[in-house]
Design goal:
It is built from 23 helices and 21 strands. A seven-stranded mixed beta sheet has the order 9-8-10-11-12-15-16, sandwiched between helices. A five-stranded parallel beta sheet has the order 4-1-5-6-7, sandwiched between helices. Strands 18-17-19-20-21 form a five-stranded parallel beta sheet, with helices on both faces. The protein starts with a helix and ends with a strand. The protein is an alpha/beta fold.
């Protein structure tokens, strides 16, 4: 009753200006008892917190409006199922400003203006908080760009659907492509939001299944240039002696690209032997807009030729061809007119179709616009299906409104139609886009003539690989299907790589491993040759010298040989006996040592510790999450299966959820703990007392028994 009263007060407040002006009030929930037309709200990404975004987003808004216009006119030129529909659907157009808080404000305005369904939002970071409110209000929503797997949770988001595929599928495809390129290691730069968190969780899970090592993840705040620059620097920190992965996965949005690419260029990361990949959180056309706005230099823009993107793309579908034809019939004036037909806020809603030009409509349409068109069409088709079942758009009391919302959500999930983005349907029991018939494409950014008589070149995304999603994933949707490698088509021979190369760079860590192996083999060969020379000299001495002198010479040679071999074969030994420790052999899943660390500040150091121990004590079995973790939920079990826990104490350790599981298990089980303290703040360190204060009281005495300061040599 309390929430309903608040909604009524909000509705009355929204209507008051119109009542005072003597105008007919808009229909709002709980107050209006009848309405002839259903009303949907378009919650669109039109600005970045009030600042202009690349104008393709104005095009996306126009295409969502076009879908509703086609539904009203019964125009089936893009979606045949809209033919003859003659819907009376109305719309409210609002800007989420690419921001969660502003998204909630836009949603409240939509409710105040009588919306009973939502098209949007775009960013997952906006859709997640909106999803909680939509569930409470029984408000069905269809997103056209939110892809985080978190939104698949039916307990939290039972009314949410999306025409855009979930990252559970696209992330698995990305990992499979990286594996099939022959790489074993990669790093990631990721914005810290709902979308990127979900995408990276799916990437990490599938990388482990494919045998890939995610060497490092460096995160940054959305819209914060300094944070983005530090994230890039974090991939190569550690000094000249630290070899880092040269394959980079970038999860970012258009607003963050200038700082990311400028910093990468300064560090030499936009040239061979680096390879960069990204999903579809930005496009090559965004870089052109940033160049035009003066946020990128022409030199930096040109260096991005060879950048790659992997995502689900339906450009080859028949529906997309119809969508392209509809785009070419639009004009800036017709897009402006489509926006004028709505109700509610206008003028300050971020929609400005005048930014589009006639030349824009002669070029390719924004691919995300096809998903926006389908999202708006899905709402119109579902409303029509509900009306056919005897429940029209008449607004009712609170209980009836809730029932209507449930009914409309069910109707959306039951749809199947030939959309602008291909065949549209939803997974059984979910609001996720069904993957049947979806294609995965790999796009390579290449410089091509700009056209239009102005000369110059522009970056274009050229499809160099395209294949069915089913050829990459297992039946359960996981990466690295057994037939994935053999079923892939040959790549486009025009594929280019950063720095102008014609073939993909080799995995730098694999190259380093091979170099070390070659150095070791050469060293062993030299040792064998030296031993043979020593043996031959001993034979000569035996033939020339007398027995006494021979014994003396042999003794000297043995001493020299002993010290040479000792120097050559460094290993851990007991101080008392000078003999290596004898370690009990371990069964599968058991370890001598568990390495606990936080990725944000201790990943490189712990990798080095494991590599050094593997040389000094090759019989020691060591657990490191990126190498051995199968499931996040088994961390405590892995600690239990280890004899000793090495806790690498660096900045942020006690704030890490994974680390909390590990050190809590070590305390509870009474595992011997050795703390290695990183004191160098330039390498993620922090004062020991500061870190000790962050440790829970119940674990301090157990964890801070043996402390070793990390020393670089």
């Amino acid at each position: 009753a309390s929430s309903q009263a608040k909604a009524e007060m909000l509705a009355f407040a929204a209507m008051s200006p119109q009542l005072a002006a003597g105008k007919e009030p808009v229909c709002v929930p709980y107050l209006c008892k009848e309405r002839q037309a259903e009303r949907t709200a378009l919650l669109l990404r039109l600005t970045n917190r009030g600042e202009a975004l690349p104008k393709l987003w104005q095009g996306v808004a126009c295409l969502a409006l076009l879908a509703l216009d086609h539904a009203r006119k019964g125009d089936g030129s893009v979606i045949p199922e809209l033919a003859g529909l003659n819907s009376s659907i109305e719309h409210v157009l609002l800007d989420t400003r690419s921001d969660p808080a502003s998204g909630v404000t836009a949603y409240r305005a939509a409710r105040a203006n009588g919306a009973s369904s939502i098209v949007g939002a775009a960013r997952s970071a906006v859709s997640v908080p909106l999803g909680y409110v939509e569930t409470e209000d029984v408000m069905p929503a269809v997103s056209y760009w939110s892809s985080t797997p978190a939104l698949s949770d039916q307990k939290l988001f039972p009314l949410f659907a999306r025409t855009f595929p979930s990252d559970s599928d696209s992330a698995a495809a990305m990992v499979t492509v990286l594996r099939n390129m022959g790489w074993e290691h990669f790093s990631a730069i990721s914005v810290a939001d709902e979308y990127a968190n979900g995408y990276m969780q799916a990437v990490s899970r599938n990388a482990a299944a494919c045998g890939l090592t995610l060497s490092r993840v460096s995160t940054f705040e959305y819209g914060n240039a300094d944070s983005a620059a530090r994230a890039v620097q974090g991939l190569v920190s550690g000094g000249a002696n630290i070899v880092t992965a040269n394959v980079v996965l970038l999860i970012a949005f258009d607003v963050d690209l200038p700082a990311i690419f400028a910093t990468a260029d300064e560090l030499g990361m936009l040239d061979a032997p680096y390879a960069w990949f990204a999903p579809d959180s930005f496009f090559a056309s965004d870089l052109g807009a940033l160049l035009a706005a003066g946020q990128l230099t022409a030199g930096l823009y040109g260096k991005l030729a060879g950048f790659n993107q992997v995502f689900i793309s339906q450009k080859s579908s028949a529906g997309y061809a119809r969508y392209e034809a509809a785009w070419r019939q639009l004009t800036p004036e017709s897009c402006e007119a489509l926006g004028e037909g709505g109700v509610g806020p206008s003028g300050d809603n971020g929609y400005n179709a005048s930014r589009l030009t006639a030349a824009d409509f002669r070029g390719p349409p924004p691919e995300v616009g096809s998903y926006a068109y389908d999202a708006a069409a899905a709402i119109a088709l579902a409303i029509q299906n509900c009306s056919s079942n005897g429940t029209d758009g008449a607004l009712r009391d609170h209980a009836a409104a809730a029932a209507r919302g449930q009914e409309l959500a069910a109707a959306i999930r039951g749809l199947a139609f030939s959309g602008a983005s291909g065949e549209v349907g939803f997974k059984q029991g979910l609001g996720d886009r069904a993957t049947n018939g979806l294609d995965i494409a790999m796009f390579n950014w290449q410089l091509q003539p700009a056209g239009g008589g102005g000369g110059g070149e522009k970056l274009a995304d050229v499809a160099v690989l395209r294949y069915s999603l089913s050829t990459l994933l297992t039946p359960g949707g996981e990466a690295c299907a057994q037939n994935a490698t053999s079923s892939l088509p040959e790549p486009d021979p025009m594929w280019v790589w950063l720095g102008g190369g014609s073939s993909p760079p080799r995995d730098r860590l694999v190259v380093e491993r091979e170099r070390l192996a070659a150095d070791l083999a050469a060293s062993q060969q030299r040792a064998r040759e030296a031993e043979e020379r020593e043996r031959q000299r001993q034979v000569v001495l035996g033939a020339v010298l007398g027995p006494a002198l021979l014994l003396l010479a042999a003794g000297v040679l043995l001493v020299v040989r002993h010290f040479k071999l000792a120097k050559r074969r460094r290993q851990l030994v007991w101080r008392s006996t000078r003999k290596p420790p004898r370690l009990r052999s371990k069964a599968s899943g058991e370890y001598h040592l568990f390495l606990s660390h936080t990725w944000s500040s201790g990943q490189d150091q712990v990798h080095m510790i494991k590599r050094r121990l593997a040389t000094l004590a090759p019989q020691m079995k060591i657990f490191l999450d990126v190498d051995d973790l199968e499931e996040f939920g088994t961390l405590a079990d892995n600690v239990a299966a280890s004899d000793v826990v090495l806790l690498f104490l660096s900045r942020g350790y006690f704030a890490s959820k994974a680390c909390k599981i590990e050190y809590t298990a070590a305390c509870r089980l009474g595992k011997p703990v050795v703390v290695v303290h990183e004191s160098d703040e330039n390498h993620g360190g922090a004062p020991l007392e500061e870190l000790r204060d962050q440790c829970p009281d119940e674990c301090q005495s157990h964890l801070f028994g043996i402390i070793i300061r990390a020393i670089r040599i």
